[in-house]
Amino acid sequence: MVSVKKKVAFGVGGALIVAAVGFGVFAMNSKGYDTASKAVSAGSFKGDFKNSKSPIKGGVLKVSTPGTASDPVTFAGYSEFIQAAAVQGELAPASNQIFYTDSDGKVKDGGPANMKVDKDNKTVTITLRDNLKWSDGKDVTAKDVEYSLEKLATNEEASQNFTSSYLAIKGMEDFQNGKAKSISGIKFDNGEDGKKLTVSYSSLPAGVNWGDGVPSYALPYHDLKDVADDKVATSDKVTKHPLSFNAFKVKSVSSDSVVKYERNPYYWGKAARLKGIEFHVNDDQSKLENDLSKQKFDVVTSVPSSLWKDGNKDQLAKYNNAKGYASVGTYGSNYYEAYFNLGHYDKEKKTNVQDRQTPLQDANVRKAIGYAMNTGDIAKKYSNGFQEATNTIVSKSDLKKDFYNKSVKGYNSKSSGDPEKAGEYLKKAGYKKESDGYYYKDGKKLTITFMARTGSTTSEAQAKAYIAAWKAAGIDAKLYQDKLIDFATWSSIMTTGTNQDWDVTIAGWSEGTIPSFGQLWATSAKYNMGHVVSDKVAKNLSDTDDASSDTAMIQDIKDFQKLVVDDNAYVIPTTTSISASLVNGRVTGFTTANVNDLYAQLGVTSDNPTKSGNPRK
């Protein structure tokens, strides 16, 4: 995966694990004071809230990105070290991406850096702004861009955001494997302290116009160079005192996960309208309703779906265009899918091995499990309108419409599941239904272990609903360790890739600007959570990387969806997300459309929040 709306990145991947259904990020790419493209409504939620009042000078915006007390996240001041989508939301006011994008997500000139592609010579030249400086007053240099790529290639934490597209850079593989001390394909046109670097490729990535395979961040080499590599991600320089070249810089990070921002005096662009921003993260969700009643927050970036309503009783829904808040909805750039455990990750060889002795190696068994799932009913009952069952592994975000393969059938045509079709595929796999209602083969009952996560108040109910549906279809199912596990434990199990005690789990992903799949499906990818090793998958990924045109690349991405979903059921698509934000009536400039430097253009119309009424009227 490449850049992102959720992760606001280009080339670094963007395959961020979504900690729980209903949690997202304040979507923000960069365009800075551009005229926003039109945001569209999603589900029952209206599009943008337009505030016609003029903003005051200054003001402090208070933002909440809800989390859970059981799954705390650590602030990371640079995108390279981020693993969960919620953390990217915290960083948004001071993002370290260097490119701007247009309404289609392609890289455009005018941001912190410009990019020039030379297809004949297979090079990309990156030119930083002359006046681009870090918040300590030091120049952002070509070395800073190269240093970011070095960390992605070799640092243990950052490497999980490394995408295979970078391997097309000459010398990258030798550098990554320790055979070279530098990346031979990167040339500093005016020296390391200059503003220009040229990247040479063995073959240009197909999505290069979107930033695929292009170094797209900068890390302050002068500030981090003396920090030990194994300590840099958790160092105070990253988690407490990161530098910024964006409109805001970090002022403080408190122990209760409040990140305070102030204007960056060295920002190259038009000064931010706001004086500062307070980002509250991992707040106790149970307090959110009371916090909103006191107008504690101006923006709730992504409303927890489980708190929208309690049955028929409004909870946060009482602020749906009421009580001083406007609700704003959009289809998120994320989706969820069920994975099957087919092997393990060999850390020494840095590769996945599809060698697990399991009935799941049979595609017919995987398809049966998919058809048995009652995803539609679960989404309707538990998501409060924030999830929709989906057929494929590309989101319904407007930015992904060119890549979304409408012809993929998936497994969710029946909201309550399709036990009959599940049975047909089990019979193809050689199973027979016995008198107890379960399917057997060679005297062994088909039993699966479902590794489900905590994350919302309905997580357990959803997990039990899936288990009940599988059992109703004749597939015995049980919870991993007879309980739900927290996100941190789950993430550790999945990224380590050696646990053989689970069969099925569900993961959510934040997409890149191009929903390509190398970071999730390459044989070497740590995020290849099912440990799929397939010649056809590898060929498609290679064809995508080598596509001769944007049209060919898009077709390869569509073909990939059919290959892994309909043809082989390596994953079962479950849901795609709708994200709703709550915006206080005093906020100006808010949009869910694809804009640059959103936080720089936000403002407030008064020092005090709007306390009543529908701000849309």
TrEMBL record:
It is found in: Cell membrane. It is a lipid-anchor. Signal peptide: none annotated. Keywords: Signal, Transport. Residues 116-529 form the Solute-binding protein family domain. The keyword Signal applies. The keyword Lipid metabolism does not apply. Pfam families: SBP_bac_5 (PF00496). PANTHER family: OLIGOPEPTIDE-BINDING PROTEIN APPA (PTHR30290:SF9), PERIPLASMIC BINDING COMPONENT OF ABC TRANSPORTER (PTHR30290). Belongs to the bacterial solute-binding protein 5 family. This is Periplasmic component (DdpA). It comes from Fructobacillus fructosus.
